């Protein structure tokens, strides 16, 4: 079997082949590492390749199989981690000069669980600095490129994770989603991206951006692989006080079983997600998704997300405020980059220069905005008002689900991937790329992006994604809906050229 054939397998197929000894984990790891070094580097999708530790992990899986042991549901599966997830191996840079040489003394909870399930972590993925961005262009180590068209962005902030899965480097990658950072790049790269319910997955070991919004989740080529990954990384964690106290589930079972649990067969279609502000291919994808689910026996009803217009403003106030607080620890004293002082300069100069040299312009912009909205005289006018808007947004979703809707259908972004540099000088235009995703994080709900269309732009085919949003802790239902879509379409089987 060639390297390409191996890497084109799904994660479930890879693990099965490793367990029945028709494929060695080491050979699979070597193929993935080679592709990470070549394709991953050419796309600037990886910040570091973890060859030594990956091969050691693969050998441990093969040894366990040789002894008749089951290494786990991800036996020998190569995986990539967004570089804001702490690992003992390599550096945890967050795409930032401040942490470019930072070595974590521990593994994140999700990393521990992946290793325990037999996964082989081959690389850390590039990202917008501290996960702040929607294009993959804000990394201190350069912009990530979209495998479908290297002149375009892959989306962000989980840019490298999405690009690695789309480019066939690994079948699954982990990302983090604060305002759409899993779902938007999944749409831009033609893959599946799942943002779990807030608290479903432990955040212990995820470097914080906005603590009440951040959530870890998988990016994969299909719903089944995403389900297996979520089954492994989810569950209560005593080290994370915000982790939901719910029993772990076998989400892969949600893919293989029929709808026998009397779940509602009504999908709400948000009126705010269809309009002239979208690229025509996005509106077409929504219409095609509606037709597909209607043919599958679902009832489609129009719903209103009245608070959607306020979501962007509320999100960027709350996220910036929490970022300002979380990033205060990066001061040049405790860890990370430390500026050189001139004679006569003091502690204040050290703080100022270290943070100026260490943080990029987007991070500085959000820190300044966050500090402003939390300052005396502005807290009630901005931050407290944003918290009230957050509650209104949550209530709007609750009202829709109370009507019997199983999920809400929305675009994952207003258009397909845009050109590198196209929106760098217009932060507001960049922020509006998140218009369909941020409300999910504000409400703490789960959502999944699935490939649902193809846009022809300047002679290039670019993927288009739609997302399904469900009530809290309804990941199994969303994965089943994604599987229904895959069974009646072939968009998830499309691969980038080359």
Strand composition percent: 5-15%
Q: Strand order of the main beta sheet, please? A: 1-3-2-4-6-5-10-11-9-7-8
Q: Helix amount, in percent?
A: 25-40%
Shape: globular
* Structural class estimated from helices and strands: alpha/beta
CATH architecture descriptor of the largest domain: Alpha-Beta Complex
Question: How many whole angstroms does the radius of gyration measure?
Answer: 22 Å
Task: Point out poorly predicted stretches.
Answer: none
CATH topology of the largest domain: Amidase signature (AS) enzymes
Number of strands: 11
Supply the number of helical segments.
17
Oligomeric state of the chains?
Answer: single chain
Count of folded domains: 3
Beginning-to-end CA distance, first to last residue: 19 Å
Series of secondary-structure elements, N-terminal to C-terminal: HHHEHEHEHEHEEHHEHEHHHHEHHEEH
CATH superfamily of the largest domain: Amidase signature (AS) domain
- Give the biggest sheet: 11 strands, mixed
Query: CATH first level of the largest domain: which class?
Result: Alpha Beta
Mean pLDDT: 95
Can you give a write-up of this model?
40% of the residues lie in helices and 13% in strands. The radius of gyration is 22 Å and the shape is globular. The protein has 498 residues and is an alpha/beta fold. The model has no long low-confidence stretch (mean pLDDT 95). The two termini are 19 Å apart. It has an eleven-stranded mixed β-sheet with strand order 1-3-2-4-6-5-10-11-9-7-8, with helices on both faces. The chain has three domains: 3-256, Amidase signature (AS) enzymes (Alpha-Beta Complex), CATH 3.90.1300.10; 266-307 and 392-447 and 454-493, Amidase signature (AS) domain (Amidase signature (AS) enzymes), CATH 3.90.1300.10; 313-380, no CATH class. α11 (308-326) crosses α14.
